[in-house]
Model the fold of this input.
Amino acid sequence: MSEENDGSLLRAQNAVALCSIVSLALLWKVYDDQQQQIAQLQQMQDNVAKIERGLKQVESKRLQESAKSRSLQTKNALFAVVPCKRNPGGLCPVTSDPSLRLDMVDRIMKESADKDFQGVNLQGLNLSKINWNGANLTYAQLDYSDFRGADLSNVDFSHASLIGADFTGAKLNNTTLIGADLAGASLENAQLNNTKLQTANLRGVHACGAIFKGVKLSAAWLQGAALWGADLSASNATGYFRGA
Done:
């Protein structure tokens, strides 16, 4: 009798152990399925994020192209590619309305990354209110234009015509004026730190009180220039100073 009881107990214990093993296997299967579902969900989320990033890039590119197109349309309304005096093939204005031209230029500078005004003709206009930072004004026609108090840092005026232009109190730090014609221009109390003026024509300029620190003046022409009180410290002043 005792042996039968022991056998029954053993069978019962085995049954309980088997049930426990089956339960653990089922629990592991449920856990494994959950982990797979979590991994699939994470993959789906990653795919959605990639799609969203792609859509944002497409939209960003579309907006950039749209802005570029608007800028081009504005420039087409302002300029025409026709021969200019100093730069054949450069840009010249097709509108004679000064206020309209200034509004268009101001709009381009504010809205567009394309700040290329090479060869533009804006002679005699008040350009002091426009933020010209980083603009390309090479070969531009800017005779007798008004830049008083303007911040013209980092602007490229290479080979521009700036005869009689007024830069009184303007900031021309790190500005490029290589080969520019500034004959008779006013630079009184202007700041020209690290400005490039190589081969520039500075005949008859009025630069009293101007700061020319670190300016490159090699081969520049300064005959008749008024430089009373000007600071030329640390400048490469190897230009032609007769009468200055």
